[in-house]
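[SOLVED] Need 3D model of a two-part complex

Original post:
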Amino acid sequence: MDRATFEKLAVEHLDAVHRMAMQLTKHPDAAADLVQETYLKALRAADSFEERGKGMRAWLFTILHNTFYSDLRKSQRGPTAVPEFFEASDTEDAPDDAAPAWDLASLDWDHVDERLKRAIDDLSPEHREVLLLWGVEGLKYREISEIIGVPIGTVMSRLHRARKILMESLEEFAAELGWS
Amino acid sequence: MGDRDMNNKANGGRIDLQRLPDAALIRAAADGEAGAAEALRARGITDAHARIAFEASLRDAVGRVMGHASAPSSLRAQVIAMMHHAQLDDHANADEPMRFVEAKARHDAHIAERDAHRRRMRPGLRRGIALAAVTALGAGAVWMGMQTSTQTGAPSLGANASFIDALSFVRHEHDDRAVFDAQYRNTFTVNVDEAVGIAERELGSMPTCLAKAIRGCKDSGMVFAGLSSCSVPGGAGAVHVMYWSVPDESAVSLFIAADPAGASATECPTKTLKCGTSYVCPKSRAAGTPLQVWRQDGFTFYLAAGHTEPVPMVRKLMEAPAREELLEPMS
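Solution:
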């Protein structure tokens, strides 16, 4: 792939890369720095891009993910702040949830966005990251696991936790509306 | 490492559907994971259909809530500009935030070498090279006279070789640098403070519009893509400023030459240009390669672009005279 094609393809995914950076950092300036660093690293490694076998978007996500957690590790000088990243064994079986108590068909999704947004903002970066890759980018578990470098079970576990928190938030919302 | 992970690795990363609890299997089915729907049907969960629909709705809602944001245009511009002059060398300290700033020492060394080379080159030879370049470019950027000069009594520029030199230099230099090649990266600085320093040194004083145009061009959809000293024929010191136009993704060049003090109109032909007027090359405009000249505050500004779209933005940025006159080729 020539340089011009590489650059064009990389810039096409800027929105997605920026979204992920925002979800990880939750700060516009930090996200912008992370995006620039990601693209600079991608440029430096452009020659090896085709050999990796991933699509450009997944490749950029991987660089961004590694950059973010590498910086985080340096700044915190220890792995304890993000245990799931450093201990990829966080794959305990998800408890088998029952179906929601309220009538699913009656839920007005158009009115839950704000509640969902707040619930998502309260999630940890690693849960937001998986949720984004799953819900926005539409990636498969395997693709997510390759990007963030954890087993599929961990991806499922994080997704389970994130969804559970969102469900609880929606349950509260449903209760407020008298649906339960 | 948990049993499931061991199993994941043993299965080449596949999900062991048989071991998934009902809720996880329902989610996997809702997420379209291979084989999950079949496994779910085999398990015979009564309300599976409704729960899958709910999970799918939740995913849609998450996509809606998290998926709206797009990258700010300023960041897009920075990334695009960075792409064009990223330092691919590994000299950067990995612990430092990586920026696309040129190494000052390399820049200065290059400028010194180029200036020395230009001093060694005879003026006549330089003009000859410029004229040859014009011919090679199809003479599209050459205009030999000024229609208004005969109407207003202003001195004609038609036979002034220095003016032809300047115009061909501008066009040629823009075309050469707009490819953002290695020579561009080694010559131009994108460090704003450094750029201001070079401009002050080369021009004697800083045009007020230039300082604003370097520091505040983002709002106009332009990215400052670098500045370098250069030698516009007929001028004293000069600089070449490059912008990257974000909307149409093209390069724009602005050359600013200080009028030499005490020079005659023959020595410095642009002194005959009327202040308050922008002169447009009609041939280049028709060909979609704008080239304009105007004088202001003791400086001559040359604008060259690959497309017409960004020209108004740069003109506004540089506070170019609103009045425009066409230059006509000499028959």
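Edit: The first helix of chain B runs from residue 3 to 10.
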